[in-house]
């Protein structure tokens, strides 16, 4: 996949775990793990908004596009 999720990096920088972040943004830890491990097929803008709000970051800090060769 050309779009990579770097949520784990931002979570480490902010020293927040999956359970805590999931509770703060209102999704299950299992769904957050799917997103964090780059297994998600989609993300709602409302979820991305909450993640950015809690982690005090920009969407580009979490989502990265890498060109396929």
From TrEMBL:
SMART domains reported in the protein's UniProt record: HTH_XRE (SM00530)
One Pfam family matching this protein: HTH_26
Species name: Eubacterium uniforme
All copies of domain HTH cro/C1-type, residue ranges: 7-62
Protein's UniProt name: Putative transcriptional regulator
Highest taxon listed in the record's lineage: Bacteria
InterPro entries: Cro/C1-type_HTH, Lambda_DNA-bd_dom_sf
Molecular function per GO: DNA binding
């Amino acid at each position: 996949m050309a779009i990579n999720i770097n949520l784990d990096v931002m979570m480490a920088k902010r020293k927040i775990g999956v359970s805590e972040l999931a509770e703060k943004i209102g999704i299950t830890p299992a769904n957050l793990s799917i997103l964090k491990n780059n297994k998600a097929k989609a993300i709602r803008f409302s979820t991305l908004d909450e993640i950015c709000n809690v982690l005090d970051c920009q969407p580009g800090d979490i989502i990265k596009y890498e060109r396929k060769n």
